[in-house]
Amino acid sequence: MNIHFQELIPEDFDHNSRVWVYQSSRAFSISEAIQLEKQLENFTKEWNSHGSSVKSYSNLFFGQFIVMMADETHVKVGGCSTDSVFRFIKNLEKEYNVQLLDRQTLAFIIKEKIQLIPLSHVNYSIDHNYITPDTLYFNNTILTKKELLNNWIIPVKKSWLAQRIPSNHFE
Fold first, then answer.
1. Going by C-beta distance under 8 Å and a sequence separation of 6 or more, which residues neighbour residue 88?
2. Least buried of 20, 40, 80, 88, by fewest C-beta within 10 Å?
3. What pLDDT is recorded for position 170?
4. How far is Cα 82 from Cα 51, in angstroms, rounded to an integer?
5. Could you tell me if 50 and 5 are in contact, meaning their C-beta atoms sit under 8 angstroms apart?
6. b vs e for 96-108, b when ≥16 Cβ sit within 10 Å of the residue's Cβ?
């Protein structure tokens, strides 16, 4: 699975640009993805904060992750504009019958595919070597462009999940 996405991130955005990652409960079909990408493009074109246009970017990655970014060097994203993103995401959930705000399901790359595992099943997955220290994990808690580029897709051993892995798994 090709995990190189960095070249799709705009270079002219500040490294401290705010980032939001919304993981879908399933991959979007090709026709859904085409439609969704148009909706994302339209939203970012119209995204405003206190009447000023937000320098923003959004994209669908790996058919399953909506990434939105706002460069706040000129216009800060206030509460109302953040609320507009939340409403937009909630509408997408209804329209496509997916969950985009579930933080209790984690995404990994296992056997060259994105696999979703409920947080409650992570220990079992580790105990049975389904997840190893080197398994790639989508760290959707990132907050900035710099983190997106460097820390979004990382081995489990470099994530907060490492503390759940018994030390004998690192040998």
1. 43
2. 80
3. 58
4. 13
5. no
6. bebebebeeebbb
Q: What is the CA radius of gyration of the chain?
A: 17
pTM, entire model: 0.93
The two three-digit tokens of residue 82, written as one number: 């953040």
Length of the chain: 171
Q: What does each C-alpha distance from 10 to 25, 68, 81, 101, 118 come to in angstroms?
A: 26, 12, 21, 25, 32
* pLDDT tens by residue, 94-104: 999 999 999 99
* DSSP states along 41-73: HHHHHH-EETTEE-EEEEEEETTTEEEEEEETT
Residue 145 CB-density burial (10 A; 0-12 exposed, 13-18 middle, 19+ buried): buried
Do 40 and 66 meet the contact criterion of CB atoms below 8 Å apart?
yes
